[in-house]
Specification:
Low-confidence stretches: none
Strand content: 5-15%
Distance between the termini: 16 Å
Strand order of the largest sheet: 2-3-1-4-7
Bound molecules: BIS(adenosine)-5'-pentaphosphate
Number of strands: 7
Radius of gyration: 17 Å
Mean pLDDT: 95
Amino acid sequence: VGREPLKVMISGAPASGKGTQCELIVQKFGLVHISTGDLLRAEISTGTEIGNKAKEFMNAGRLVPDEIVTAMVTTRLSCEDAIEKGWLLDGYPRSFSQAQSLEKLKIRPAIYIVLDVPDEILIDRCIGRRLDPVTGKIYHLKNFPPETEEINARLIIRPDDTEEKVKSRLQIYNENAEAISSTYSNIMNKINGNRPKEEVFKEIQYLLLQVQEDRMKVTKSG
Ligand code: AP5
């Protein structure tokens, strides 16, 4: 009661498991999941102006221009549900200038989580990834096959999940990662993401509970 809601930022290379962990974090902590990739894919599928502009960049595995993404994210972060329940920001910031945009607006998370996974595993995860357009759930042909034949029949492949595009996305990620983490070095927690998803989640859950606890102490003593 009267506690400021939790604000979490999650980062990591393409297919490091951000979306998968976010599903679990939302279930447990009730935060509002704001994924720039999901927001952009929704703009594309409804054919908005933003979607039309973003499409060619995304399908080529390149970053969408800052002005499009930054406006979209800051608008979403200022919605009532995010302010009330707290947020889980996934896929933003993705460059130093995006991190600076948030700093200028004094939008800061309580914790910055980075999922660490070796490159060769990331490529395999992207190539095997499938999405359920009905529930938004993330599957993998080998690691997490769909539960029923009905789901299996409707699964879709992301256009940027070819080996060539994954390599380009990975390169862009590696070029930017250090500059972003320098902005959040005092709240950064790097986690080994190359483990079963439940194990990864256990560690994230521990960290988030710790952040919540620390903030209670601060509230009590101050
Ligand atoms: P975005 O949608 O953010 O893609 P991404 O960062 O490349 O991340 P992914 O969604 O590919 O992977 P993930 O880490 O969520 O992994 P997942 O859980 O699905 O962005 C897409 C594009 O949008 C960008 O390329 C860019 O063009 C544009 N964009 C977005 N944000 C932008 C920004 N801020 N600025 C500019 N442009 C922007 O898992 C992957 C697979 O692995 C799945 O099949 C899953 O089942 C499996 N898996 C997950 N965890 C495990 C595990 N522990 N063990 C085994 N398999 C696992």
